[in-house]
């Protein structure tokens, strides 16, 4: 048996007798972590198979891991660089799956939920993010203060939770629809990594997808146009809530990236200067985008200003 490298420490690809399989190591469920995991992925896959959703087949499972069939093909992130036009056929397939799943209200998945409707789902995501952020803040309070971020940074978002439409039924969502979780197999879109799937608000799934996919402007407009056409419900209310979840995703990413950028770039966990530069620019884009929301009282910063803040913190903590 050969063990092949993967980009994730949570899974390994193995090859035996000419066949490939994926070992997925179980993450802790029901505990505060950056991206909340509610139900074992193996259980999610078993449930999704009832609805003929194309997912990797389970070969083996226990409390420590599960083994899935290997989906051959090209990972979408390897096919399309960020902000490059995609084959519209792939976008159509993604929209079709999202809209199909928006009609699935699964009682078994609902039993695992810690929320009863879209508003409480939104509030739970905010609460979990806040708990993680506050642990980071306790460790790096001076750094966060230098970015004009205090412990109450999430209050404006909490105050907007009343806008969430509870008339829209909760449904089955993937929870992590980014490019690395899509495999193109025989010209068909296959989603992998279902560990964040749950009963939740489809507006979250759509918002996270848009936020992470880094579509070109024309492709994002096409995606939204197709959601309007195919979603069987109040599409305008849905898309208004998508905007709110995109704000949440931006805030969450910015708060987490402050710690991550410090660790990876300034504590030399990344050795390549090119990679360091890329990550700093990635953080700058997130932070400056968040500063466009006046209620957070942030001021857009240049690369030089960001570098000065991070470097100053590193110097002070080392003296």
Short description:
By secondary structure, the protein is α+β, with helices and mostly antiparallel strands.
Description:
This protein is α+β, with helices and mostly antiparallel strands and 319 residues long. It has one domain: Aminoglycoside 3'-phosphotransferase, Chain: A, domain 2 (Alpha-Beta Complex). Helices cover 49% and strands 13% of the residues. It has helices at residues 41-49, 76-79, 88-101, 107-110, 118-146, 155-158, 202-213, 217-230, 235-266, 273-290, 303-317; strands at residues 2-4, 11-16, 19-25, 58-61, 65-69, 74-75, 171-173, 182-185, 188-191, 198-200. A hairpin with a 2-residue loop joins strand 2 and strand 3. Helix 5 (118-146) runs parallel beside helix 9 and helix 7 packs across helix 9 (235-266). The longest helix has 32 residues, at 235-266. The termini are far apart. The relative contact order is 0.12.
- Anisotropy-based shape: globular
The class by helix and strand makeup works out as alpha+beta
How many DSSP-defined strands?
10
**At the fourth CATH level, what is the homologous superfamily?**
Aminoglycoside phosphotransferase (APH), C-terminal lobe
Strand adjacency order, main sheet = 1-2-3-5-4
The ordered H/E elements are: EEEHEEEHHHHHEEEEHHHHH
Q: What proportion of the residues form beta strands (DSSP E)?
A: 5-15%
- Average residue pLDDT: 94
CATH topology annotation: Aminoglycoside 3'-phosphotransferase, Chain: A, domain 2
CATH architecture level-2 label: Alpha-Beta Complex
Kindly give the count of domains: 1
Helix content: 40-55%
Radius of gyration: 20 Å
Distance between the termini: 50 Å
